[in-house]
Amino acid sequence: MYEQVSHSLLNDILIALKPDIKNKKLQHFYTRLGSNFYAIHSLFSVLYGDRQDFNKQMLRLVETLAQQYIKRPAALKKMDLAREKDHNWFLSQHWVGMALYSDGFAGDLKGLQTKLHYLQELGINMVHIMPVLDCPSGKSDGGYAVRDFRKVDARIGTIKDISALSANLKKRGVLLTLDVVVNHTSYEHEWARLARQGDKMFQDYYYVFDDREMPDMFEESMPEIFPETSPGNFTWDKDMGKWVMTVFHDYQWDLNYRNPAVFIEMVDIILFWANMGADILRLDAVAFLWKKIGSTCQNEREAHLLLQLMKDCCQVTAPGVLFIAEAIVAPVEITKYFGEDAINAKECEIAYNATFMALLWDALATKHTKLLNIAISNLPDKLERATWLNYVRCHDDIGLGFSDTDIHLAGYDPNAHRRFLVDYFTGKFDTSPARGKPFGQNAKNGDARISGSLASLVGLESALEEENPDAIEVAIKKILMLHSLILSFGGMPLFYYGDEIGTLNNYDYLEDESKSNDSRWLQRPTTDWSKAELRNQPGTVEYRIFNNLKKLVALRKEIPAFADYNNRELLDVENPHLFVFLRFDPQNSKAKIMVMANFDDHPQSMSFDTLHQVGFSQRNIIMDIYSGKSPSILNGRIVIPPKSFYWLSV
Ligand code: OTU
């Protein structure tokens, strides 16, 4: 029955389309629209079905999809067709990404083009260029407070530079990832400006209230995201004489997706960037898309429906483009952003594996892998056509979002344990070499997160200061071990710029008033290219990190068992310092890799029987493909040195 309603509406819409659309030959567009329309219509009805102008809004949406399809460059349309045929292309072990700020990395977008060879030298073939759009200076949130969704920030270049960069990357076979900040705009965005001038239509683009009645009700259940710099979730706007919802900074206004006009505008923007040549779009802060009194205003069902709808719309116009969900939320919530009740990802094909990231830091601090093992074995299975973005560090803080139940199971008290981790990484203990800083400390509930660059958090900064070669060696080992895990876990590894040469904390931000209260700037470096040059000089820290990572990247690409097909088995090896999992190739049962990591400061071992059980029977021909050596075996146990890893194969 329902299909019939949707078919008849689709027919009406096709008749009503503007002549400039109707007169075009849009065969592939119509095929895709036909096959996705039932889903689009159903989702749009659930969200906006009670509106008088529902059919008109549906028509506007379809027109938006068609207009952007017409504008989509022929080369990208060709790529769409190829990717539809090979729709699991992104699950391959071939891809290795890096996230970077174009200004921090290379001065600006033009500069970035001159440094692509450096990324390729390391083996990077996916680049996430951190937000490039126009933001008010000093109130930019590192690019996440967008003033104009179609204008590149003058500091780093122009839209032409993006086109040139995108074309250059395509020639090199490197994927381009760009951000779309879907949850909020800058208070200086045109919509916000008009709202401030009293335009009711644009006030309806945001959550705007005359008095504190509704904001107070929302506040009863909403947590604070930036408690130090932007406490509360609403800001009084003098010009408007009203309260506006600002979940992040007071200059970031939350968009109101109860208004279909907002949804259609954002779909238009998503498709605009798809048409600029982005292969992957990182949708920022997706957990926050729907606000409801009585809830935390995160992970609401409607937020998922909106994402499914965005995906279905993108499927019609630019089906080759993937979405990354940036949802730094509880482990059980994250997998929902792949889309529930489906085999194929219905929302975002890729999601940040924030759980794994935080667990790696936990294992590093405790030297124990109990929590890591428990939490990974409790991680829900992903959908078939979905994959993780595995990372060690990024531009944000490290949030300690493990589940309390898992922390209990590991034998810790959740609050005390989280406190310990913050203290450890901010160097509060004599035994800790870490040089992080707290971020987002909340005096009301004791919450805190951690900032700092990878190198400074693992102790390289303090080791270099002490000129202690042993400590330097340990720090480098930690950097390599963590990367060996994100490269082998299953999913796309995402390096963070600077980590490949051991870049330390950047303290410059303390001199800048607009940044000094946000410790996340510690981990947003300006690349020192003379330091990067040292990667060519044997013996230097840069050489040791860069070249070993390069080797790991190259090896990963050669190992089909590292592609992501739910082909990982976590092994219980009865040693609380080890993290061990098996990767296998679904196409070839003989091609197996055993990944082992020892988080302890002492050598650790596991029984050879465990390996035997999973098919590593002949101990004499087992080899670590990274070092090219056989691991030592003592009394029937395989031994792994401190802060080290193996990629074992037969
Ligand atoms: C994202 O962050 C960005 O990565 C941050 O750089 C921005 O400040 C923020 O959005 C606002 O645009 O929304 O779902 O703990 O992890 O704010 C997670 C803070 C986000 C970040 C969180 C995150």
Write the layout of secondary structure elements.
Layout: H1 2-16, H2 19-22, H3 27-48, H4 54-71, H5 74-85, E1 97-100, H6 102-106, H7 109-114, H8 116-122, E2 126-129, E3 133-134, E4 148-152, H9 159-172, E5 175-180, E6 184-186, H10 190-196, H11 200-203, E7 208-209, H12 213-219, E8 234-237, E9 242-245, E10 252-254, H13 260-275, E11 280-283, H14 301-317, E12 322-325, H15 331-334, E13 350-352, H16 354-366, H17 370-377, E14 387-391, H18 404-409, H19 414-425, E15 437-439, E16 449-451, H20 454-457, H21 460-466, H22 469-488, E17 492-496, H23 529-533, H24 541-558, E18 568-570, E19 578-585, E20 588-598, E21 604-607, H25 608-613, E22 623-624, E23 633-634, E24 637-640, E25 644-649
Parallel strand pairs: 1-2, 1-17, 2-5, 5-11, 11-12, 12-13, 13-14, 14-17
Antiparallel strand pairs: 3-4, 6-10, 7-9, 8-9, 15-16, 18-19, 19-20, 20-25, 21-24, 22-25, 23-24
Helix pairs in contact: 1-3, 3-4, 3-14, 4-13, 4-14, 13-14, 16-17, 21-22, 22-24
The site of 3-O-alpha-D-glucopyranosyl-D-fructose has 17 residues, from loops.
Structural account:
The structure is a single chain. The chain has 650 residues and is α/β, with parallel strands linked by helices. Among the domains are: 92-177 and 289-560, TIM Barrel; 567-649, Golgi alpha-mannosidase II (Immunoglobulin-like, Sandwich), CATH 2.60.40.1180. The protein has 25 helices and 25 strands. The strands form 7 sheets. It has an 8-stranded parallel beta barrel with strand order 1-2-5-11-12-13-14-17, surrounded by 4 helices. Strand 11 (280-283), helix 14 and strand 12 form a beta-alpha-beta unit. Helix 4 (54-71) packs parallel to helix 13. The protein is globular, with a radius of gyration of 25 Å. The protein starts with a helix and ends with a strand. The mean pLDDT is 96. The structure holds 3-O-alpha-D-glucopyranosyl-D-fructose (OTU). 3-O-alpha-D-glucopyranosyl-D-fructose is lined by residues 141-142, 144, 181, 225, 248, 284-285, 287, 326-328, 395-397, 399, 449.
